[in-house]
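Instructor's aside before we start: the two examples that follow are unrelated to each other. I chose them only because their records fit on one page, so don't look for a connection. First example below.
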Amino acid sequence: MIQAHHAQQIPTIIQSLAPTIDHYGYFALAGLLFLEDFGILVPGETVLIASAFYAGLGQLNIFLVIIVGFAAAVLGDNVGFLIGDYGGRPLVERWGRYVRLSKERLDKAEHYFNRHGGKIVAAARFIDGLRQLNGIIAGISEMRWPKFITFNMIGAALWVGFWSLIGYYGGSHISAFLKAELYFSLGVVLLIIGRMVYRRVIKPRLKDKAHLS
């Protein structure tokens, strides 16, 4: 149980997870990360950070947090890959609305995966939205599983290691790190949208003007 004298140290953003971690410990970490990594809307990343934070308070073991987090993240993404690979677009388009995965959102993500391949599987870990869907989209895009699992494990190791260290050592500054990640994710999404607009709208118009001049 989280000790009372630590209560003032716990950032507000993860205080709500204290009862869950108190009662379920590593099982909460494994379950929520596993579910989040194939599209279910649960606070997987936050419970990873919270678990690492509580490890810093002596309530959990940081090495077990990292091992359990890594295993759950990799397994969850592989479930997503199987859903995308065997179910394909029809399955995802039919049920995707329940996890806010619209056809338009899927089109954009699949296009980006097709262009950037394995490296986006690793990088997607750090981008909210892509993190939850990268396994599904990689499966739909018919990426080879050995390539997917390799980059998936690299991304999971970097992501779990990074946020575990932030949670373990970050203390009261965790909220600032989470806000920075949100801004980073929004920036990446805007960059992707801007690039697509340029390639599909602005660039063709510039070419037309060049031909007319």
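Example two begins here.
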Amino acid sequence: MNKFLFFLCMPGLLFGVSACNGILSDIYDTPSEQFVASHGFVSHDETTGRGRISLDMKSYGAWTYLDFAQLRATTLSIPETLSGEWDGRSGYSYYQVTLPSTFKHHRTLPTDSMPTPEKWDIALHHYDVRTNGGAAFETPYTSLEQLLREGNRAQLSAQPFTPDTWTTHHCYYDLTGIYEYYIGYRHSWCNLVLSRWMDMNVSQPPPTYTLSRRVYLVRFADGSMAALHFPDHISPSGNKGHVTIDYIYPY
């Protein structure tokens, strides 16, 4: 995912305002006030394991956790403040970004740790994806049908799967300082392979969104696997930030 910003914005923007409800959020995703998105598991075939998930992921201020066994989606807000003793890493940091990939740390604001459901397999934050102690592999296939037709499960399962990485400058939090390339990022685990499903390129405005079109295999902590395909990030009514996931579970 292209996480670097290079475009002109109106001057006078204030630092420190959360992008989840900030004045720049509509630059990336322009939701309709009348649009009510479905959110969660919308179909599942017990015989084939095939299903579809539909998620409203416009906000930068929450993670949505998916439990494939229970077909459950749980959305939890990211803590904004610190109410007790700091765990030493939860929070968000501001960086001065120099293209293409230099981050100069300016300050860190500690927060409470992120709450999670009792059981979950993967979680999404806007276009970022993490696993719950799992790992991911990007296949060469561009549809679940092609995976089933051409893929060899034993060979694919033996490929190197990539676990999550702890990062302090990958998940967007505050975009109000982008005119100065001063950007706030959430501290979080993130699966950098699985998050490649979307490339958000804003090097030349307006932003362009490019789907990888690849099928991803995710090995969960219990050893089971799911095959995931992200066919779209736009709702039927044309709103960006509405993520569709087609899946096979278990694969």
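The helical segments are 25-28, 144-150, 153-157.
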